[in-house]
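Problem: given the chain below (95 residues), write out its structure.
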Amino acid sequence: ISLDSATQKTPRILEPHRKISGPPVFVEGGRTLVYAVTEDGVGNLWAQPVQGGPGHKLTNFSADRIESYQVSTDGNAIMTARYHSDSDVVLLRNQ
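Solution.
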């Protein structure tokens, strides 16, 4: 909904990826939303057209999660901070 519009309009409902894992960010003058999606422990960025249509992957990472992301002021670059966590399991028994 345009914030400067004097007329009431019906809000547009978007269908983002069901595994969205980060807050959306407007890019391209508000025409596209970028958001993080985590599937099987791997984070990637997706773009969703505001006018409708399916979203699509912007990145193709095969490991790690996205901690944060930021779009440049001109909209030509995206920075991602990714992280990886390892964990070990040890079983102790008292015999």
